[in-house]
Amino acid sequence: QVQLVESGGGLVQPGGSLRLSCAASGSIFSINTMGWYRQAPGKQRELVANIRSGGSTNYADSVKGRFTISRDNAKNTVYLQMNSLKPEDTAVYYCKAFYLGMDYWGKGTLVTVSS
């Protein structure tokens, strides 16, 4: 019913910026919460940031002040602006949507921060 497609990942140098996008499609009236998670090699998947329908947000401590999550409810799209990227940010980033009591996940987009 809900399909999520991420875009914007790639290779970036330390200190650089990337903007990730995630568009939800399907028979959707509204999505309660959208967010970004990431999983680095050998590590568990962790929350990066999420944003509720009312606009409230929360961030992992490791990205506060550097990343900004936003959404366009009309388009059912969530964005993640990533600034001052560090090698530790290297991971596969996954988009998640919570809709009608269900979690939906994108396939992920790889972000590599390296010189």
Summed up, the helix count is 0
Order of helices and strands: EEEEEEEEEEE
Q: Which overall shape is indicated by the principal axes computed on the Cα atoms?
A: globular
Average pLDDT level: 94
Q: Helix amount, in percent? A: under 10%
Uncertain segments of ≥5 residues (pLDDT<50)? none
Strand-residue proportion: over 45%
How many beta-strand segments? Answer: 11
State the end-to-end CA separation.
40 Å
Radius of gyration equals 13 Å
- Biggest beta-sheet profile: 7 strands, mixed
Secondary structure class reads mainly beta
Q: What features would you describe in this structure?
A:
The chain is mainly beta. The chain is 0% helix and 57% strand. The chain has strands at 2-7, 10-12, 18-26, 33-39, 46-52, 57-59, 67-72, 77-82, 91-99, 102-105, 109-113. The strands form 2 sheets. Strands 2, 4, 5, 6, 9, 10 and 11 form a 7-stranded mixed beta sheet that branches. Strands 1-3-8-7 form a 4-stranded antiparallel beta sheet, with no helix packed on it. β7 and β8 form a beta hairpin. The N and C termini lie far apart (40 Å). The mean pLDDT is 94.
